[in-house]
Amino acid sequence: MTAISSTESVRVRFAPSPTGPLHIGGVRTALYNYLFAKKHGGTFILRIEDTDQTRYVEGAEKYIQDALHWFGLHFDEGPEQGGDYGPYRQSERKDLYKKYAEQLIKSGHAYYAFDSEQDLEAMREREKAKGNHTPKYDASVRHSMKNSLNMSEAEVAAHLEKGENVTVRLLIPQDENVVIKDIVRGEVTFSSNELDDKVILKNDGMPTYHLANIVDDHSMAITHVIRGEEWLSSTAHHVLMYRFFEWTAPAFAHLPLILKPTGKGKLSKRDGAKFGFPVFPMEWKDGEDLFSGFKEDGFLPDAVLNFLVLLGWNPGDDTEMMSLEEMCKAFSLDRIVKSGARFDFDKAKWFNQQYFINTPNADLLVMVKDVLVKYNVDGLTDDFISGVIELMKERVDVADDFYNNATFFYHEPSEYDLKTFRKKYKAENAEHFDAILAGLEGLDTWDTEAITQVIKGYIGDNGLSFGAILPVVRIYITGTVKGPDLFPTLELLGREEVIARWKKNASQLPESV
Ligand code: GLU
Predict the structure, then answer these.
(1) 94-209 shares its CATH topology with 412-512
(2) Separation of CA 16 and ligand 1 centre (Å)
(3) Domain residues of the chain, as ranges?
(4) Helix axes 24-39, 301-309, angle to 10 degrees
(5) Does the predicted model carry a pTM greater than 0.85?
(6) CB-based pocket (< 6 A), ligand 1
(7) Whole-angstrom Cα distance, residue 265 to residue 275?
(8) Is 252 helix (H, G, I), strand (E, B) or coil?
(9) What is the pLDDT of residues 164-218, one digit of tens each?
(10) DSSP SS3 for 328
(11) Considering the chain, what is the average pLDDT of its residues?
(12) 76 alpha carbon to ligand 1 midpoint, in Å?
């Protein structure tokens, strides 16, 4: 089913509704579409599904574009790029849908319905009273409703003329099995009796998702529909509509859910705040609520993509680290799994750390400089910051750690680990610390090698242990025993700073314990 015939070129679309920011699950959907397109030399399309005017959120489309741009998932066709199949915003294609709704009415697969909200509510109440707890507009009720199936032509014309509550509904056939051939799930069968006569055209003349989605997939020559599992049940309606229009349906691949870290239930936008991690690619403000994003939280876009690609797919071996290019080569729809994928934030941080380690310092410089601006650190040279990056990159999960785990590079420690200091500091070693300091002060060249020779040499020559000296020196200079290698840290901080901190703390810290 995944085989691509040589005459058909792959065209896939990412089709978000601008009803809010792009959730991280949406990024995964976009990524899988992108990878599939690139793998097959196909076309990756952005289509904005904005037919539901009531749910339209200002700024959402821009957010979606910006976020995918940040990830480097560039579209070949879309509202900004243009293309031969535009326009790519459904609100700009409004006229097209009406024609198709009318075509279905003509062919007997759809009908006009003029029911008001009250009529619908009354129907639901009647059904509930009869013991039907999931009432829907279907074969069991359509004969009792205000629709063209139950009216004369003149009545229908009068309703259309009046223009109130004019909708078009699909006429779902009875007692049929509707079979969806899904690349991920195999054959999924729905009984047509479970399906309702969905509205396909609304009173405002706008199509609903179902009509617009398939008209566009067809008219944009989409070959594969790759989307979240939550759309699987709609696909039964879609499959019927393809048949009514006598169109060939695209291939379908429904992606597994992304689950909460607990593995129970779908990851929601509220889970971010609850579990303390981002669920959006970039920051999003929703009224009073500010949702943080992977970007602001110090993630590298490639690391996030690498994390996401493995949420529901694997390359067939245990390879984890993959560049976008490698993902494109390795990707195939038949290795997408059916079961939900648990969102493991520690794993996301692990990927980020690996990407920090593998990214050249020069490429991290701009990002780290931005972090430092955020924390009001200024006046440092690029060389110094690059030195910090070199020493810290194996010790950071997120960009802010270049500040938070390394504050001693930017200013004198404001806190000292006195607990460890107390354990390690012996008054009888005071003369040794003075002697080592004198050795450092007298160095011709201030570099790691020379510093190492002075300190290690002194320890060796005087029969001391590293454990009695090095932790104390570390605390004098950095306030903590955690951190990168001590000698290069001293080199980077510079002679003057090291000596000043050493002198000050050698006189103050022993007194404070
Ligand atoms: N507009 C739908 C969404 O917001 C698209 C679903 C689909 O890809 O068909 O996810």
Answers:
(1) no
(2) 5
(3) 94-209, 361-407, 412-512
(4) 80
(5) yes
(6) 15-17, 49, 209, 213, 227, 231
(7) 14
(8) strand
(9) 999 999 999 999 999 999 999 999 999 999 999 999 999 999 999 999 999 999 9
(10) helix
(11) 95
(12) 19
State residue 5's pLDDT score. Answer: 55
Q: Which residues sit opposite 13 in a β-bridge?
A: 45
Fold assignment, 412-512: Arc Repressor Mutant, subunit A (1.10.10)
DSSP E strand stretches across 312-353 = 341-342
* CATH, range 94-209: 3.90.800.10
Q: Confidence class of residue 136 from pLDDT cuts 50, 70 and 90? A: very high
Neighbour count for residue 332 (Cβ, 10 Å): 16
Nearest-angstrom CA–CA distance, 499 and 493: 10
Domain 361-407 bears CATH identifier 2.30.230: no
Q: Which of 19, 31, 46, 49 to mutate to test the pocket of ligand 1 (most atoms within 8 A of CB)?
A: 49
209 Cα nearest atom in ligand 1:
1
Cα-to-centroid distance, 456 and ligand 1 (Å)? 64
DSSP 8-state symbol, 152: -
| Tens-place pLDDT, residues 253-307 | 999 999 999 999 999 888 888 888 999 999 998 888 888 899 999 999 999 999 9
**Residue 17 C-alpha to ligand 1 middle, in angstroms?**
7
The DSSP letter of residue 102 is H
State which ligand 1 atom lies nearest to the alpha carbon of 17.
4
> Which residues 6+ apart lie within 8 Å of 135 measured at CB?
123, 124, 126, 127, 128, 141
Identified catalytic residue from 94, 260, 269, 347: 269
What are the Cα distances from residue 270, in Å, to 176, 266, 296, 349?
40, 11, 18, 20
269 is catalytic: yes
Q: Are 219 and 96 in contact (CB under 8 A)?
A: yes
Mutate to test the pocket of ligand 1, among 213, 230, 254 (most ligand atoms within 8 A of CB): 213
